[in-house]
Amino acid sequence: MLQEGNKIPAFSGVNHLGEAVTHTDYAGKKLIVFFYPRANTPGCTAEACNLSDNYAALQAEGYELLGVSADSVKKQAGFVTKFGFPYPLLADEDHVAIKAFGVWGPKKFQGKAYEGIIRTTFVIDETGTIVRVISKVKTKDHAAQILEG
């Protein structure tokens, strides 16, 4: 997994609108990239809604937001439409960004071991340097976690 001080890796993908997105779209901007396991699940919904509810405060601090999961464009579009998120969601079905950031790995749920996205948020400065990695995400209060940074 990428750490504080690392530069963000080159990545590209398609957002919930079917538009191409790449790391260069965020050059010179402060960026929050949050990786979540699956759209429309309780924890992911709580996290995404909390960020949406606090979007103005995050923007006031100069941040752009980008959510990333391995869901399809159609599933991401439905997630955005259902909850009205004001920020893009990247459909990373090929795990390009997920693996580049190092957030794919072993997980456990109800005693089952499997591979999946490890919920992680990266706070990135204008130079493309990771200034903070949040691995213990509080899904219901994530914006405060970021802003308290």
Which features does this protein show?
Glutaredoxin; 28% helix; two-stranded antiparallel sheet; alpha+beta; 7-stranded mixed beta sheet
Short description:
This protein has 149 residues and is of the alpha+beta class. It has helices spanning 42-53, 55-60, 73-83, 96-101, 142-148, and strands at residues 12-15, 20-22, 30-35, 63-69, 89-91, 104-109, 112-117, 120-124, 130-134.
Helix/strand layout:
Elements: E1 12-15, E2 20-22, E3 30-35, H1 42-53, H2 55-60, E4 63-69, H3 73-83, E5 89-91, H4 96-101, E6 104-109, E7 112-117, E8 120-124, E9 130-134, H5 142-148
Parallel strand pairs: 3-4, 4-5
Antiparallel strand pairs: 1-2, 1-5, 3-8, 6-7, 8-9
Q: What do these coordinates show?
A:
This protein has 149 residues and is an alpha+beta fold. The chain is globular. It contains five helices and nine strands. It has one domain (29-148): 3-Layer(aba) Sandwich (Glutaredoxin). It has helices at 42-53, 55-60, 73-83, 96-101, 142-148, and strands spanning 12-15, 20-22, 30-35, 63-69, 89-91, 104-109, 112-117, 120-124, 130-134.
The biggest beta sheet is recorded as:
7 strands, mixed
> What is the CATH third-level topology name?
Glutaredoxin
Q: How many discrete domains?
A: 1
Shape by Cα distribution = globular
Structural class: alpha+beta
Specify the helix fraction band. Answer: 25-40%
As a whole number of angstroms, the C-alpha radius of gyration is 14 Å
Measured distance between first and last alpha carbons = 19 Å
The residue ranges in which pLDDT falls below 50 over 5 or more consecutive positions are none
CATH architectural category: 3-Layer(aba) Sandwich
What is the mean pLDDT? Answer: 96
- Individual helix count: 5
Strand order of the largest sheet: 2-1-5-4-3-8-9
CATH class: Alpha Beta
